[in-house]
Specification:
The complex is a heterodimer of chains A (about 350) and B (about 270). Chain A has about 350 residues and is of the alpha+beta class. Chain A is about 25% helix and about 25% strand. Chain A has eleven helices and twelve strands. The relative contact order of chain B is 0.14. The chains are: A alpha+beta (about 350), B alpha/beta (about 270). The interface between A and B is large, with 45 and 41 residues.
Chain lengths: ~350, ~270
C-alpha cells in the first residue's frame, strides 16, 4: 500500500493519538534491566533502546492464563458462566519486531486447524500491529534462516523503518494500519520513490534453511544428537514461555470453595510432567525426548500438519536459556548433518 | 463449555474402580447427543479438573453414557466422591471411532487387560446389540486378581451367552479358591485360546506392557497388521488438537485417534 515519511520527533505525538483512541496499547517497557511488552498509558513509557523484549507479544492474543468459564456449585447442581467474548478490547501493539508479528501466523494455524478457537480468534481480530524494522541484530537472531527478515512486513499493519536520525519510513500495509495513520494525518508526508529500506536494515546472514532442517529431521529421530544437545537442559520451560509460536497449554481448575473457574495457561513440552500419565508411565521420559519433541514439533510436525513452521528466528529461547542452549547452533548442526 | 451431567447411578466395579451412569441435565442436549464406539470424552469434577476416558457405554444404549475409572489422581478422586444426583462436566464426543461398519460379517477377537475393558465394552455391547451383523465374538479379558476384574455382572452375562466366547483370566497368584476362569497373563492366554485369524479382526486394549506382548502373539496366530486395532491413551488436556501433549510423532491421539490400526502404529515413533 502506501509509503509515507514521519519525522522521528513526531512519533511521540502520533503514539499519543493512538493511545487516546485505543483502549489498550501494548509496547516494550523497561522493567529494571529488562524490557517486556506491557500496557502503556503514555507515550513516554515506551522503551526504544532494546533490540527485543524478553517475552514475545503472543500474550496479547493468547494470555498466559485465561478463563474458559466459571462455575458455581449450589447443592447438587452446578451452574456454568461463559466468558464474555464481546468484551475483548481493541488493541494496538506498538514497536513489535517482524519476528514477533510473524509468530501470530503459526498461532493462528494451531488455533484454527480443525476446531476454531473462539477466544484466540476474537482477541486476535481486535489487534493492530505497528512494527519497527530492525536496524540492529544480536548474536541470537536468525530470522533470515527461517524465512523472515529484519524488514519483513508480513502480518504487520504498519511498518516503521528508522532511515536516519530525523526520518522514519512508514509503510501502511492494511486498512487497520491506514486507520492508525489517519489518527494523525498531518504528521505524515508522501515518501520519495527511491528509498532503499534494505540499506539501513540489520545484516543477518542465513545459517541454514528451514527446508534443510525438515529434510534432515526425517532421518534423525533415533539419533544420539538429541541427548548430546539436551544434556545440560534443566527442563525449566523458559524457552517455551518466551517463544512467539509455542502454544501448548494446560487446563487447570482455579477453585475457591463452591465456586471457581477453569483456566487455560501456558505449558511447556520441556516439563517432565507434561506428558506423564497418572500411572507414572511417560511417553517422553527423558529430557532428550522432550527436546526432540520441541524441535520436531516446530520443524517437522507443524509443516506436516499445518503447512507452516513453528519458529520465527527471534532467538528469544536462546537469550532466555539459563544454561545457554542456542537453538540456532543446534539447528545448524542438524542442517549440516547428513545421515545417509 | 462442558455439558452438565447428572450422576444417575454409581456402581463399584472393583477396589477403587467405579462406573458412573450419567444423564444430560438438559434433556434436549441429551436427545441431540450422538457418538460412536471408540470416541472419548473429557469428564470433569468441578473444582478438580478434567480427565480423559473413552465412553464406556455403547451408542446403541440410548439415554445415558457411562464412564468407568480407577481412583488414582486428583480428578478421579473428585469423580470418586460424586454421589447419585450430583452434577459433573462432560465434553464429548471427541476423537475417532472403531470402524464397525467395515467389520460386518467378520469374526471379532477382543483382548483387554485390567481397566482397559471399559473402552472396549462400548464396542462389545455395540456389537452384541447388532449381533446378527457380525461373526464369532471372542473376548479375552485379564486382570491382576479376581477382585480387579471389572463389569463382573456383564462378564457373567457374556459367559452365559452361547454366541460369545469369553475367556477371563487373572495373573498367576491373583486367583481365589473358587475362581473358575483361567490363570495366566493375557498374551499367554490369547496364545492358548488361539482364535482363528481368517476373516477376523483383533481389537487390543490394555496397559502398554500388555499391548507390547500381545502384538507378537497375534502375529504368530496369523493376524495381519491391517486387521489389528488398538486404542491409545496419552495424557490430554484439550482433546481437540491444540494443547500439544498427546501427539505421537505427527499424529494427535485426540484427533487422529484414539483408535489406531497396527499398520498406522508401525509408522509412528514409539512415544506412547
Amino acid at each position: 500500500m502506501e509509503e509515507l515519511i514521519i519525522k522521528s520527533s513526531d512519533i511521540k505525538t502520533w503514539l499519543d493519538q493512538i493511545i487516546e483512541h485505543t483502549p489498550r496499547v501494548i509496547a516494550p517497557v523497561k522493567q529494571g534491566e529488562k524490557v517486556e511488552f506491557k500496557s502503556i498509558k503514555q507515550s513516554d513509557d515506551v522503551d526504544y533502546e532494546s533490540q527485543t523484549t524478553v517475552s514475545s507479544v503472543k500474550a496479547a492474543a493468547f494470555p498466559r492464563t485465561e478463563t474458559l468459564f466459571a462455575y458455581e456449585k449450589e447443592g447438587l447442581n452446578t451452574k456454568l458462566y461463559d466468558v464474555a467474548k464481546d468484551n475483548f478490547v481493541e488493541t494496538v501493539i506498538w514497536r513489535a519486531r517482524p519476528c514477533d508479528v510473524i509468530g501470530f501466523k503459526p498461532l493462528t494455524s494451531i488455533f484454527n486447524w480443525d476446531y476454531k478457537d473462539e477466544l484466540y480468534n476474537r482477541r486476535f481480530e481486535k489487534i493492530a500491529i505497528v512494527t519497527f524494522a530492525c536496524n540492529t541484530a544480536d548474536k541470537c537472531c536468525f530470522c533470515t534462516s527461517v524465512g523472515g527478515g529484519p524488514g519483513n512486513t508480513e502480518g504487520s499493519d504498519v511498518m516503521l523503518t528508522v532511515l536516519d536520525k530525523e526520518n522514519v519510513l512508514v509503510e501502511v500495509l492494511t486498512e487497520k494500519g491506514q486507520k492508525l495513520v489517519d489518527l494523525a494525518k498531518d504528521l505524515f508526508e508522501k515518501a520519495e520513490q527511491s528509498i532503499d529500506k534494505e540499506a539501513v536494515l540489520a545484516k543477518i546472514p542465513a545459517k541454514f534453511t528451514k527446508e534443510q532442517i525438515y529434510k534432515n529431521l526425517a532421518k534423525v529421530f533415533d539419533n544420539p544428537v538429541w541427548k548430546a544437545q539436551s544434556e545440560r537442559c534443566l527442563g525449566c520451560g523458559a524457552c517455551a514461555f518466551v517463544c512467539p509460536t509455542c502454544a501448548c497449554f494446560d487446563i487447570q481448575e482455579d477453585a475457591h470453595g463452591n465456586h471457581g473457574r477453569r483456566v487455560r495457561c501456558w505449558d511447556s513440552c520441556g516439563f517432565s510432567l507434561f506428558t506423564q500419565h497418572t500411572s507414572g508411565h511417560n511417553p517422553r521420559p527423558t529430557q532428550a525426548t522432550r527436546w526432540r519433541q520441541r524441535i520436531m514439533h516446530k520443524f517437522s510436525y507443524m509443516p506436516d500438519r499445518l503447512n507452516i513452521y513453528g519458529c520465527t528466528g527471534c532467538g528469544r529461547c536462546s537469550r532466555a536459556c539459563p544454561v545457554d542452549m542456542n537453538i540456532a547452533e543446534h539447528l545448524t548442526s542438524i542442517a549440516e548433518s547428513s545421515h545417509e | 463449555m462442558p455439558y452438565i451431567m447428572v450422576v444417575d447411578k454409581v456402581t463399584v466395579e472393583a477396589l477403587g474402580v467405579k462406573t458412573l451412569r450419567l444423564r444430560f441435565q438438559n434433556e434436549e442436549e441429551g436427545n441431540e447427543f450422538e457418538f460412536q464406539a471408540g470416541n472419548f470424552a473429557e469428564y470433569s469434577a468441578f473444582g478438580e479438573g478434567e480427565c480423559t476416558f473413552c465412553i464406556a457405554s455403547a451408542p446403541t444404549r440410548k439415554g445415558y453414557v457411562e464412564c468407568t475409572f480407577r481412583k488414582a489422581g486428583r480428578v478421579t478422586s473428585g469423580l470418586d466422591r460424586l454421589e447419585e444426583g450430583m452434577t459433573m462436566g462432560f465434553r464429548a464426543p471427541l476423537g475417532n471411532n472403531f470402524p464397525l461398519e467395515d467389520w460386518k460379517g467378520k469374526n471379532l477377537v477382543f483382548v483387554a487387560g485390567g481397566i482397559a475393558l471399559p473402552p472396549m465394552r462400548a464396542v462389545i455391547d455395540n456389537v452384541l446389540d447388532r449381533r446378527e451383523e457380525f461373526g464369532e465374538v471372542t473376548i479375552i479379558y485379564g486382570a491382576k486378581t479376581v477382585n480387579d476384574l471389572v463389569y463382573k455382572e456383564e462378564l457373567k452375562e457374556w459367559e452365559e451367552r452361547p454366541d460369545v466366547n469369553l475367556f477371563a483370566t487373572v495373573d498367576p497368584g491373583g486367583e481365589t479358591p473358587d475362581w473358575k476362569g483361567k490363570v495366566g497373563f493375557t498374551p499367554n492366554v490369547l496364545g492358548e485360546v488361539a482364535p482363528k485369524s481368517d476373516n477376523a479382526i483383533a481389537i487390543v486394549c490394555g496397559p502398554p506392557i500388555m499391548i507390547k506382548f500381545t502384538f507378537p502373539v497375534l502375529e504368530k496366530l496369523g493376524f495381519k497388521d491391517e486387521n489389528v486395532y488398538t486404542t491409545l491413551e496419552n495424557r490430554m488436556k484439550c482433546g481437540i488438537g491444540k494443547c500439544g501433549r498427546c501427539n505421537v510423532g505427527p499424529m494427535f491421539v485426540c484427533k487422529d485417534g484414539p483408535v489406531f490400526c497396527k499398520t498406522q502404529l508401525n509408522e509412528l515413533p514409539p512415544e506412547f
